[in-house]
Structures are given as structure tokens and as C-alpha cells.
Amino acid sequence: MEQGYELRQVTRCGSTNSVLLAERSLARPVLLVAGEQTAGRGRRGRRWHSAPGAGLTFSLAVALRRPLRELAALPLVAGVAVARALRTVGVARAALKWPNDILVDGAKLGGILVETRSMSGAIKAVIGVGINLRGAAALRTRLRRDVAVLEQFIPVPDQALLAGSIADALLASLAAFEAQGLDAVRAEWDRLDAHAGQKLRVRLADGRVLTGVASGLEADGALRLATRGGMRAVRSGRVISARAA
Q1: Whole-prediction pTM
Q2: What is the 3-state secondary structure (H, E, C) of 66-126?
Q3: What is the model's pLDDT at position 38?
Q4: Is residue 19 part of a domain?
Q5: Which of 148, 164, 192 marks a domain boundary?
Q6: What is the mean pLDDT of residues 144-153?
Q7: CATH number for position 25
Q8: Which of the two ends of the chain, N or C, has the fewest CB atoms closer than 10 A to its terminal CB?
Q9: What is the percentage of the chain residues whose pLDDT exceeds 70?
């Protein structure tokens, strides 16, 4: 069966997202897999380096036609697809942390970065995915926090095959998103939410910290927090701590 995307593999590049964002045309979805990424980045411009064999790094470029205001939900749509694919290959406890992290038992296994560009009649969305494969001890030392790596849960598969499996799940979720918006995956995201019902501290974009109980998603993908002052919707921020409510 023909793939639903053009597969490209490179030994080394700066950032798979940057490569695909720079391309002017997009006749069909493109999956770019890099053996090593030297200038990768996460949210808010954080640097992310993937040494050869230590991590899976790839980006999928697709054309979307949903209204621009809805595309802020893309990291959530992508997260559902990545977690679903990981569970399919044996990572049974893969879960999601709002808005863009993949966790297993509270430790970060991977992350997602979505970037967009306008094209004629559509928006090009580039979905970058990074998954830790090996070397948990070195990662914990470098990052000074707990991390998860794929080899803790399953034998590490061929990187191109794993990227392809995740890309297939991404395309399926994106097709559903194109047809129905975030509602297509919202219930599944709720089931995969690692922090559902927990008391969270969230650092907002302006530096303030908001505390409340995680209560699912708003229709636009914002995080719902039940605070002492009532229900709040967080559209930009990051979860800095979580504990039982």
C-alpha cells in the first residue's frame, strides 16, 4: 500500500522543523527523519540536541484548511496521535501533559513542537516530534530531572519504522481534526491526560503562577483549572508541578 507521505531520511541536520518550514511548496505530506539533530528546539525557543542513536527526531509537514484560530490545538491533536502510536507498540502507560509533552509514569519520554506557515489557500503545519530512545542516566544528569527512555519499556525498533507508525497515526488524527476540529480527539485526550484531577501549578506567559485542579480542556484546547476563584482557562503557560488534589 502506498504511504500517505513522502519519506526522507538524513543522517544529520540542524532542525527537521526548520528544513520543512523553509520549503516553499508542499504537494503531499512530507516525513523527515534525522539520525542526529544539532539545533532542534522546543517550546519558547529551548534548545534540544539529539545525539546519534539516543533519540528519535522527525517532522511531518502537512497542509491544513481549518481556520487559523483553531490551529493552537494542534499540539493536543498531535499528542493524542503520538501516545496512541506508542501504546500500540507496547508503551502501555504513555500519557499526555498539557500542552505538548509525552509522559510515562510522570517522567518525560518526548515532546512535540508545532509550527505553521501560510501557503496559498492553506496553512502548512510542521509537527516536530522528539522521543528519548536510550541513555536515561546521561539524560537525567544533563537535564537534572527524571526522564523516560523507550528502551525501558520495549526493545527499541528501527527508527524509520517507528517514525512511520507515528506519522500514520498523526495523519489519521489530522484528517479527523480537519473534519471535526478538536472535538475529534478531545475525549481521547482526556483519557490520556496524565494530570487529570490533580492539583497543578501553572506558570502563565506573564510569569504569574496559577494553582488549580486540572479539569480537562476548553473547546479551543485551553487547559481548564478549577481554582479557588472559579474555573480558569489557560491558553499559554506550562505546568511546573502536579500532585494529588
Answers
A1: 0.93
A2: CCHHHHHHHHHHHHHHHHHHHHHCCCCCEEEECCCEEEECCEEEEEEEEEEEEECCEEEEE
A3: 83
A4: yes
A5: 192
A6: 89
A7: 3.30.930.10
A8: N
A9: 92
